[in-house]
Predict the structure of ABC transporter ATP-binding protein.
Amino acid sequence: APLVALRGVSKRFGNGTLAVRDVDLDLAAGEFVSLLGPSGCGKSTLLRMIAGLGAPSAGTIAWPGRDEGAAGRGFDLGFVFQDPTLMPWANALANVMLPLTLKKVPRGEAEARAAEMLALVGLAGFERAYPRELSGGMKMRVSIARALVMKPRILLMDEPFAALDEITRHRLNNDLLELWAHERFTAVFVTHSVFESVYLSQRIVVMAARPGRVMADLPVDAPYPRN
Ligand code: ADP
Ligand code: ADP
């Protein structure tokens, strides 16, 4: 069974805007999918509905595969926004610990898991650094570590690297692929960059033209290690 199954999903906002129209989409466990399309085509709205942030106005979003092959994995989902949204008064470690603290994981264990996650995103040694001391790319790494620290089945990313310079962005793309291969979450990556979608994903879902519609669903055969 697919991990997530969307059927006839539409979203009309209170002001009348029909942001998503009649989307059918299955996401398989472990795949790396991009949602590609120009600004305003409904990518964020669709991603947010998958995350449970805003209900569809029509259609259903089901999780038929949620209990399959989930050993050692909670059902939490991770969400990464374009803005890293870190707590400025807390250091990198404390920022990554937040989801564990909210789930009442004991402090020692939470610190160890957060430190391990920071190391995985390339920030070993920066545990005590505050957000203001970190570059944009490093803040994004902290944000990704925080999203992954609960070992979610699925990581939803909404144009996470769009505000970063090209070199930083390229490094983060490479490191994200390594992290995905290592941690084996399902990745859904919203972008308006054709390059980024081809480079990162196994599959590209194109939203365009008539806003809110899925126009194409394409497999990608990229020369990159795949699961
Ligand atoms: P994308 O992520 O592809 O840029 P969005 O999903 O953000 O597109 O937006 C799709 C459309 O829905 C746009 O026309 C946008 O202005 C509109 N929209 C998004 N959020 C809201 C909202 N909360 N209320 C009304 N319209 C919205
Ligand atoms: P993005 O560039 O990622 O698509 P936007 O700038 O379109 O983001 O949207 C930023 C925030 O404003 C989102 O929470 C979105 O839901 C909301 N939003 C976007 N368009 C509208 C709109 N027309 N009316 C109300 N809220 C909107």
